[in-house]
Design brief:
The chain is an alpha+beta fold. Helices cover 27% and strands 19% of the residues. It is built from four helices and four strands; from the N terminus they run βααβββαα. It has helices at 22-32, 41-49, 94-107, 122-126; strands at residues 11-14, 52-58, 64-72, 78-85. Strands 1-2-3-4 form a four-stranded antiparallel beta sheet, with helices on both faces. Strand 3 (64-72) and strand 4 (78-85) form a beta hairpin. Helix 1 (22-32) packs across helix 2 (41-49). It is globular.
């Protein structure tokens, strides 16, 4: 699967870490994302610093409207997380285009699989090729919280 849904006109995707609006990303995630509610700014900044980051930006204003983060060694492992689209930009296909761009970027690095966890967005990811684990009993987690 290599089809990449296009971003709506007036938006662009970038992996340039200098373009990430860290304050905006922190606000989005710590106040509106069920998986990151209450996350501290320091923890979010460390997460950004140790990850491959994707932003979606309005081409005219340069304002960031979406974000995705990948924890990866850029060779064998990738975990997609913190995918978020600003409420004002939802319903335009931005999230789907963002995840497709992430998928294609990671494909070029060669990991065997890309992992993610979601409570409520299965349909978004499944249309881009993500599937439930064939053998979830092979996977374990160590939870500190």
């Amino acid at each position: 699967m290599t089809d990449i849904p296009p971003l709506p006109e007036g938006y662009e995707i970038s992996t340039d870490p200098a373009r990430i609006d860290a304050a905006r990303v922190h606000r989005w995630l710590s106040t509106d994302a069920y998986w990151a509610l209450g996350r501290s700014r320091d923890k979010q900044d460390r997460a950004i610093g140790g990850s491959l980051n994707f932003g979606v930006y309005e081409t005219v204003s340069g304002g960031q409207v979406a974000y995705a983060r990948v924890v990866t060694d850029r060779a064998t492992f990738a975990w997609l997380c913190d995918v978020y689209v600003d409420p004002s930009a939802r319903g335009k296909g931005i999230g789907t285009a963002l995840v497709a761009a992430v998928r294609e970027e990671l494909r070029s690095h060669g990991p065997k699989r890309v992992m993610l966890a979601t409570h409520d967005a299965h349909a978004v990811y499944e249309k881009l090729g993500f599937r439930p684990l064939d053998r979830p009993d092979h996977y374990l987690a160590l939870a500190f919280e």
